[in-house]
Amino acid sequence: MVTSSLDSIYRADGAVFTNRSGHNIVGHFGNFSKEIEVLQNNAGLLDMSYCDRLKVIGDDAIDLLNRLSTNQLDGMDIGSVRWTILTTPKGRIIDVLRVARMEDHLIIGASPERIRNIIDWIDFYTFGEDVELVDVSQNTVEFSLIGPTAPLVLAKFVTGGKVFANDTCDTVQIAETSIAVIRSDMKGYPRINVICQSNVAINVRQSLFEAGKDFCLMAVGFQAEDFLRITLGIPIYGFELDDKVDPLTAGLLGYVNFEKGCYVGQEVVTRLNTYQKIKKKLMMIQLRDEVNLGAEIYSDNTLIGEITSVASVEQGQWNSLAYVKKTYAIPGLVCTIGSESLVEARIIAECSIKV
Amino acid sequence: MTTTQPLTIHITEKAALHVKEYASAESKPGYGLRVGVKGGGCSGLTYTLSLELQPQETDKIIDEHDVRLFVDKKGYIFLAGTTLDYSDGLNGKGFVFNNPNAKTTCGCGTSFSV
Fold first, then answer.
1. Farthest-apart Cα atoms in chain B, separation
2. CA dihedral A328, A235, A219, A175 (to 10 degrees)
């Protein structure tokens, strides 16, 4: 089990830990409802170091990644952020990458425990290009500030109090150290990630809390963030995404550029879109009770889908994500979990990240 | 007793003629032809061709029909056994790679996977 250098601080703050992809991470700090409220109305500080990070150096970095992934990365300005999907030749997802173009390198955010697959994949397709891949997951810490006032907290560290715009990145001085700051909102929810070396993480965290005092910044755990992403309909690797799923079925159309020409898997992805060949859709579903991941969804005794993520909203209501057969992917459809109609469910909306 | 020919890369006489004509038109007579592979393209890998004056230190060099082929080490793994041909005429595709390693190719034929 991978642990964090900050665990003792989190423990002292009342953290309850949970296992996530082999990492021991903070589930919550003892007040899950309050943490959700803070994410929705103020700003929460989440340690998401369990996700992988890759530093990419070299003149050919952007060009190579552009040839291997779905979104248009060519022409990315320094200081810009774009999401793209590494796909197999059959158009299946290897991972969804957050690409931040810093002054002289790229910082790539990846899913937990995917770094080896990503590095091996990119290496396989590198033929003499000027590209160097450096796994910085272990020696860096990544904090995520999430919520409406998150940009105001970061503005305190910027000369003139400038607020970071969405999908931008830069280097900022925090706790007398140069820190990478990457803003990429969660479907309208401000989200700013701060990446620093592990040995300065404690000081950086303290500085963020100092700056966040006026904005009710509060430490939150993974469960509150997961609640938010399920409610927003955002898929993640290991739950909704794996190497059997294509970007369109997962609702990630916004990360695919259909004008850019060839990339690995392009023919399959384009054909799926042109002929609308996807067989199922990722949908948000409300449940009357908690169910297990993988639970089957039925409509009139017909198996129509499977639950991929679940989060508790309040007593008697749960939000979930599920893959549902296309013909049944209708908002408002009432269905059941289990063939014996044990739990009532209602399809709310399609999960879709658009351009 | 049968002898096995080591896998190499071939260029047909027709393709070699077109390389020499192209090099001449580009004012690069006597340049070598770099035959390579790069990542990307719908099936994963794409063939590349370019004229170069000198090989790199670690290149494999193949001489056939008065044309020198330069192939880098990693590219050679994917190209060993390939024949570079030329398809001309009204429906011609230009330079064509007949690669026994290619498992699939994309619809337009410029990309392949192994």
1. 47
2. -160
DSSP H helical segments within chain A, as ranges? 7-12, 32-41, 61-68, 115-124, 150-155, 201-212, 222-232, 266-274
Question: Distance from CA of residue A279 to its chain's centroid?
Answer: 24
- Second-level CATH architecture of B10-113: Sandwich (2.60)
Q: Report the mean per-residue pLDDT for chain A.
A: 94
Q: Show residues of chain A in contact with B45, CB under 8 Å.
A: 125
Q: Residue type at A223?
A: Q
Instruction: Evaluate whether A42 touches A148 at the Cβ level (below 8 Å).
Output: yes
C-beta of residue A129 within 8 angstroms of C-beta of residue A116:
no
Identify the pLDDT of residue A342.
78
Question: Which residues on neighbouring strands pair with residue B60, listed in sequence order?
Answer: B71
Rounded to the nearest angstrom, the minimum Cα separation between A89 and chain B is: 5
Please name which of A168, A157, A14, A4 lies closest in space to residue A98, comparing C-alpha atoms.
Answer: A168
- Whether A266 has its CB under 8 Å from any CB of chain B: the answer is yes
Q: By the CB < 8 Å criterion, does A239 face chain B?
A: no
**What are the residues facing A322 on neighbouring strands?**
A283, A307
**Domains detected in chain A:** 7-51+138-231 (3.30.1360.120), 53-127 (3.30.70.1400)
Q: Is B19 helix (H, G, I), strand (E, B) or coil?
A: helix
**Segments making up each domain of chain B, as ranges:** 10-113
CA distance A311 to A290: 8
- pTM comes to 0.93
User: To the nearest whole angstrom, how far is the Cα of A74 from the nearest Cα of chain B?
Assistant: 14
pLDDT at A340 over 90: no
